[in-house]
């Protein structure tokens, strides 16, 4: 039997949904929420395979029926995965309209029709309104799963029509064991990568796969250079122009959290071990209020990027770096 890949930390969510399904209480719309990088899309795909399976066994798809064969060959006609045309771009109203055709026709294999929208927060207003109509009059045996790590960006009227499934962040030991196992690393190295990625295991795997270590070291070096006045704020900002700023600001925010925590607890421990000495030096000299203000600024700037408010990258970085340069003075 081919077991669906359900990560250990999502096991409870899995059992809960399977239970609803078995009692015929599964709602027609679910919103699957949890921080970025904990495996929501794997989870949704696995659950879709389970729902489509013709003879599931012990909360698992059987792996051998016609539906499982189609799913394993990556093409069940009753599973529809809706994503932006390009990562980071909005889901448009035309894409939702195309979905209507899928929902209105009869399931080809006679069971469920399952739709996964990923990420649900990428729907623009027109798309969200079009989906709303669908949620008001769902077809029979239709299950929609809306995935998001930005619940605040999903229209309240959509949220109110979906049952929420909260995916928890795993305990560090569980997540580190998973990362160590998957990437064949020792547990210290796995923990280090995991902490850079806010404890999210799939983000840690992506970090390793897409060579984000280079960007990471550019961040640490740039921050140190600004503090020691080896390079100007403008120069460092220029050197980061082409970087994934959302990622970069996310890392920077975690460093500021480390500094705040060190000040509050009078401790020298830093989660962001690769920047330990710099963060410790700053925490000894800086003012707590300034750290909070900078952390808030970083969050605000990151939000403007996420909301695609056409941020001027150079200006944005200069604002953040200028505040950083002043923090320990
Ligand atoms: Zn099956």
TrEMBL record:
A cellular component annotation (GO) from this entry: DNA polymerase III complex
Gene3D superfamilies: 1.20.272.10, P-loop containing nucleotide triphosphate hydrolases
Major enzyme class: transferase
UniProt cross-references to InterPro entries, sorted A to Z: DNA_pol_HolB, DNA_pol_III_delta_C, DNA_Rep/Repair_Clamp_Loader, P-loop_NTPase
Segments forming domain DNA polymerase III delta subunit C-terminal: 212-325
Alphabetical keyword list: DNA replication, DNA-directed DNA polymerase, Nucleotidyltransferase, Transferase
Keyword Nucleotidyltransferase: yes
Entry keyword Transferase: yes
Membrane-traversing stretches: none
Catalytic activity as recorded in UniProt: DNA(n) + a 2'-deoxyribonucleoside 5'-triphosphate = DNA(n+1) + diphosphate
GO biological-process terms attached to the record: DNA-templated DNA replication
EC number(s) per entry: 2.7.7.7
GO MF, one example: DNA-directed DNA polymerase activity
The protein's name in its UniProt record: DNA polymerase III subunit delta'
